[in-house]
Amino acid sequence: MGLDISYTVDNDEKLFDFDYITNEELHKKHDLSRTLASFMSRKNVINENEETELTQISKLINIDLSKINILDEIPSLDELEEIMEFDTEYAESQKEEYEIQIKKIENNIDDVSLILSELISKLNDKEDLSKLLKPTSFDSLNNSSYFKKNNLDRDNFYKDLNNFNNFVDYAKSKGTKTIWFKYS
C-alpha cells in the first residue's frame, strides 16, 4: 500500500470523460508512480538542514522549480466535504486555504509546460541524477534506482517527468488552464 498521486485540473469533467478513463494507452503515457508522490512530499519528511531532491535538482540544472513544488499544496475539496460533517470550523479554514492556494497556481498550465520541457531537456544533458544528488537521512525514494536514467522498467523519475509532460500537453489540447496534484 502506498500514496497515489494524480492530476487535478480546472476542467476535470471535460478531461476525465469516459473515453479518457477507458483508454489504456493514455494511462500508460500519463500515469505517475507512487515514488513521485513520495518525491513531491519530501519537504514534509526530511530534516530541515537537508535539501529535498527537487531543490537539489533545481540547483543542479539552474531552473526555478517552485511552480512545480507547489502543485501538491492545494487542499482537496473532496476531503473538505467529508471534514465538514465532523468539524465545520476546520473545514471552513481549509476552504479559505484552498482559495488562497488555487489563486497562486491559477492559469499555470503554460508555465508548468515550459518548466517541464526545459527540465527534461537539461536533464538529458546531465549524467544520472542518482550520481549527483546528495543523500538525505531518510531515503524513502530509493534514490539509486529512482533517479537512474536507464531504469525505465520500474518507478523512475525520468519516466514520471515524461508522463507528466505528456499529460500537460494532452490537458492543454483539451483547454485546461490550471493543473495541480492530489493524493489518495
Please give a quick description of this structure.
With 184 residues, this protein is mainly α. It has helices spanning 12-15, 18-21, 24-30, 34-40, 53-61, 66-69, 77-84, 88-105, 109-124, 129-132, 143-146, 157-173; strands spanning 5-9, 179-183. It is built from twelve helices and two strands; from the N terminus they run E-H-H-H-H-H-H-H-H-H-H-H-H-E.
Describe the 3D structure.
With 184 residues, this protein is mainly α. It has one domain (5-75, 107-183). 55% of the residues lie in helices and 5% in strands. It is built from twelve helices and two strands, in the order βααααααααααααβ. It has helices at residues 12-15, 18-21, 24-30, 34-40, 53-61, 66-69, 77-84, 88-105, 109-124, 129-132, 143-146, 157-173; strands at 5-9, 179-183. A two-stranded antiparallel ribbon has the order 1-2. Helix 7 runs antiparallel to helix 8 (88-105) and helix 9 (109-124) packs antiparallel against helix 12. It starts with a strand and ends with a strand. The mean pLDDT is 89.
Sequence of strands across the biggest β-sheet: 1-2
**Cα-atom radius of gyration:** 17 Å
State the share of residues found in helices, binned by percent.
55-70%
Mean pLDDT: 89
Strand content: 5-15%
Structural shape: globular
Low-confidence stretches are none
The H-and-E topology, N to C, reads as EHHHHHHHHHHHHE
Q: Based on DSSP secondary structure assignment, what is the total number of beta strands?
A: 2
For the record, the count of structural domains works out to: 1
Q: How large is the count of helical segments?
A: 12
Terminal CA distance reads 11 Å
Structural class: mainly alpha
